[in-house]
Amino acid sequence: MDWLSWLTGQALPWLKAHLMPRAVPEWRRVLSLSLSFWMQVAGLLLLVLPEARYRLTGQDSDPYLAWWLAVLLLLAGILGRVFQQGVSIWKEWLRIAAVAAIAIALAVILATPSPAAPLATPRAATETETLDIAVPFIAKEEGERLVAYKDAVGVPTIGFGHTAGVHMGMVITHQQALDMLRQDAAAHRSGLHRYFVPATIFTRLPPTRDAAYTSTAFNVGVAGIGKSTATRRLNAGDIVGGCQALTWFDKAGKRVLRGLFERRQREKKLCMIGAS
Predict the structure, then answer these.
(1) pTM for this predicted structure
(2) Which of 36, 43, 135, 257 could form a cystine bridge with 73, CB 3.0-4.6 A?
């Protein structure tokens, strides 16, 4: 017997009989009555669909709520394995609906920031007030380099990401780096303010929130934040929604980066001070 005959006549049937996964009896009924299966399917979809939407349309969505909901549904699916699967279709789907409702409610609670106490007298922040908060905040986020280097795209850079007039071999002091950062932060703040309506500037931008938006613009770009949902929401009076939308800028190369994710969370926390 040659090897091909042995493979088709004995080996493959043995592998199929002993190693290939087989569907459980009445698998259609099991799927229709399986809490764990449908919870895990829903959780997986919530992790995949927002990214698919972004790749297909370029439109981002709030990842925080979807992430919490996906985690809770996957957890419900795992825990569902220890319970007997449904005796009847209507009872099982009632249980699935109840678990899904609980997961949605918990996800909304976990994804909704707790507002801080409102400011007593809202007013327009001055540049000095904002920069006194924004400069040390951005400095901590950006990191300091006192000797000129080339950034990721080959542009000579120094200090806290300063590029204007920089040449290789240039060396500065810490104070010079702070002065450059203050100048750059002021330019980003000024550019971003052109996208804010007067009501936003005079009633919705205390120094802390102004600094949070300035920090995000410093990292993402003025136009990127100025044309974003975060600015549109703030201009519409939705302060909490605007602060939350700042957290959506946590991707590089279409991938969420932990460093950006954590920075956006700190900016949101700063933005939420005084929100009502």
Answers:
(1) 0.59
(2) 43
